[in-house]
Amino acid sequence: VSSRTSSSASSKLPRSAITRAPCMSAWASLPAAILPSGTITAQVSPPRAAYAAALAAVLPVDAQMTALAPSRTAALTAHVIPRSLNEPVGFVPSSLSQTSASAAAYAARAGIRCAVLVPDGKIATGKLAQALMHGARVIVLRGNFDEALKLVRELADRHPISLVNSVNRFRLEGQKTASFEILEALGEERPLDALCIPVGNAGNITAYWKGFREAGTAPRMLGFQAAGAAPLVEGAPVANPETVASAIRIGNPARWEEAMDAMTSSQGAVRAVTDMQILDAYRFLASREGVFCEPASAASVAGLMVHGAGDAERVACVLTGHGLKDPSTALDQAGAVVPCEPELAAVEEAVLG
């Protein structure tokens, strides 16, 4: 979503302010064939008991290929990298976002085992369903994302497992290509002044900044966190992050330092938006622009609406996930269905009334 804004942001963007641009999502290109494999769902408890239970669930006796990855918004290219490594490997995402679905899909296609560690009750159902359908082992941790990330990092240090979340260096190489797409879509004659982007584990903002710098440009990087999960804004980790924007419900970002460098080096900023502001932008995008995104994605537009972009004239907002990734929130925010009798008069009244 790209826009032109004035120096003072209104609480509502005019319809002409948003135009659609090509974008890539974690599920844009599904594998041509899916290899069947079993799915195991387990309940485990942090911290050390969880490590032992997760290890038992993830590494069976025949674990020649195992994949563990804490899941965040994922660049597809990151998940095919382990196939080229000459070692037994698996994927593990500790998942809140697109990574679990993408990792599971590509692991299935490549014949690599994938395990997904998810915080109990903290993942949108659409993402969980994809990981399960692709045959990933889904392990439910009685803890939050930050605990899950800590555990899988320890696990990857001890075993031939590839961690494919934001700490994976190959993943950033894939994610940065989205910045190239933005620049190509705008063209050299229309330089980008600022980028508004949601910030959770901070991999995306780190990757976009890397791509912009490699392309020889430096738009202002404006990161937006949910107010209930805003460690970068507050300057300290958040022990129990809470927000409706599940994909950015993270209290201690893995790419903290890199994200802060991106924002300070570009003369950008990191700010918070409330759940109400996120949901206002979420409904606005769907009802006014026909863009149905998940709540975390709407944080970028919410940030632009609430905080503006200074004197930037050409602004791009990154929307990272489709609304069907989180159908429960959509149903909570949408209008009710209209019951109707199977009669013409009743249908006319329902449609026209």
- Strand order in the largest sheet: 1-10-7-8-9
| Beta strand % | 5-15%
> Which structural category do the helix and sheet elements fall into?
alpha/beta
Name the overall outline: globular
- From the N-terminal CA to the C-terminal CA, the straight-line distance is 34 Å
Counted by DSSP, the helix tally is 13
Helix content: 25-40%
**Which sheet architecture does the biggest sheet show?**
5 strands, mixed
- What ranges have pLDDT less than 50 throughout 5 or more consecutive residues? 1-89
Radius of gyration: 21 Å
Total E-strand runs: 10
* Oligomer description: single chain
Order of helices and strands: EEHEHEHEHEHHEHEHHEHHEHH
Overall residue-averaged pLDDT value: 75
Features:
3-stranded parallel sheet, disordered N terminus, 10 strands, 13 helices, 353 residues
In short:
With 353 residues, this protein is α/β, with parallel strands linked by helices. It is built from 13 helices and ten strands. Helix 7 (203-214) links the parallel strand 7 (194-198) and strand 8 (220-226).
